[in-house]
Write a structure and sequence with these properties.
It is a single chain. This protein is an alpha+beta fold and about 130 residues long. It contains 4 helices and 4 strands. The chain has 2 domains: about 15-50; about 55-130, Alpha-Beta Plaits, CATH 3.30.70. It is about 40% helix and about 30% strand. The protein is elongated. Transcriptional regulator. Keywords: DNA-binding, Metal-binding, Nickel, Transcription, Transcription regulation.
Length: about 130
């Protein structure tokens, strides 16, 4: 016997047609797959809002020629060492670097780390992506 649970929902025709167009454009094979992802995303938002355990990545680009920027980035990462699983550093060109920081911990702490990095002069772009850690 499967652990799957089947249920029915009632939706307006316009809403389900719009949903079907959306999920087709996203490449979903079925409504069930799309609904599972929507439910997971909503549960992740709840976990994040409640300060729960999450994992994710901070992806940033920066100008490594900016005075003291690299030292500040390293100092901040050391301040949050308990959240950082690993980092990957990529030289994009002579001036620009890409850094990917894998993180795991309580959502508010990871958001503090992300914010501390984002506001540094020389950081051109930073994006935080979180997922469930359980």
């Amino acid at each position: 016997m499967s652990d799957l649970y089947r249920f029915g929902i009632s939706l307006d025709r316009e809403l389900i047609e719009a949903f079907d167009r959306h999920i087709k454009g996203q490449g979903y094979q079925s409504r069930s797959e799309a609904l599972r992802d929507l439910i997971r995303n909503e549960l992740l938002r709840k976990t994040t809002a409640e300060g729960g355990l999450v994992a994710g990545a901070i992806v940033m680009t920066y100008d490594h020629h900016k005075r003291e920027l690299v030292n500040r980035l390293i100092d901040i990462q050391h301040d949050f060492h308990d959240l950082i699983i690993s980092t990957q550093h990529v030289h994009l060109d002579h001036e620009n670097c890409l850094e990917v920081i894998a993180v795991k911990g309580n959502a508010p702490d990871i958001e503090k780390l992300s914010s501390a990095l984002k506001v540094l002069v020389g950081v051109k772009h930073l994006d935080l992506s979180l997922s469930s850690a359980d």
